[in-house]
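Predict structure. Chain length: 316.
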Amino acid sequence: MTMNKSTVDSFLLLGFSDFPGLEGLFFSAFLTIYVLILIGNILIIIVTLVDRSLSNPMYFFLRNLSCVEICYTSVIIPIMLENLLSDDKTIPFISCAFQMIMFLISGAAECFLLAVMAYDRYAAICQPLHYMVIMSRQVCFGLVAASWLAGIPVQLSQTVLVFTSHFCDSNEINHFFCDIPALLSLVCGDTSLNEQIALVEVVILALIPFVLIFLSYIYIGNTILKMPSVEGKRKAFSTCSSHLMVVVVFYGSGMSVYLTPKSSHSLDTNKFLSLFYTILPALLNPLIYSLRNKEIQVGLKKFASPFFSLKKRKPK
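Prediction complete.
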């Protein structure tokens, strides 16, 4: 059967249908992970909003990072959970395009936010006397707005290019969401232009922020080494370690999917690598990035204390 764009009005998300006996287990695991992602990141947003001691730029950026992670996991995981329980694994053409554009915009926003957070740590550690001037309220809002908006034109163009291509042979997407490599495998004819544009997109929206992160940490590392006290070095490094872990997880798995030629990797490999970088960073954010932070822990205790007080006062 041959299909083209004019006859494709929906796709089949195969997801984990290759493991029919494990779909119930996958559903329970991913539902638990999604609930943990929502609870952890929503708590970060609430605590950093209500606790005035967490009003500095680092927590402002962290709050926005949590918003991004809720956004991109919420456009993927609910549909994946529905497909795991349902025999009907179709997703409408428009819904697939919407899922792709929202995921790509959120991914670009995360790349830029991670770079902004690295710059924030550079300013705090390398320029402590000028930190509040460098990271003023106006600058912080501008950096966050730019992080959210910078990827929209490129990602919108990429999505339009993919979904105006001609699809053939099958409308079965061997993935759990509408990702670029999986959809390009369904396109008839030469996809080199799509791959070249995707590569340019990755360079602009992923590699440039990564280079900025790398340069920031070169300066941070040099400054930490020059600190006279061991305690000062330890404290400075502790403010960066969680950020570095998230960067390694997010970029390491993402680059392995998007920077290798289509012919050199399998879609099944992409599927599990995508699972790694779409879910794990969002799960790790409240665990390794924030809950290890003493100020966040104090803020959580302040937030929870009224509820425990009410419980203790409740008459028997």
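Summary: Residues 1-6 have pLDDT under 50 and may be disordered.
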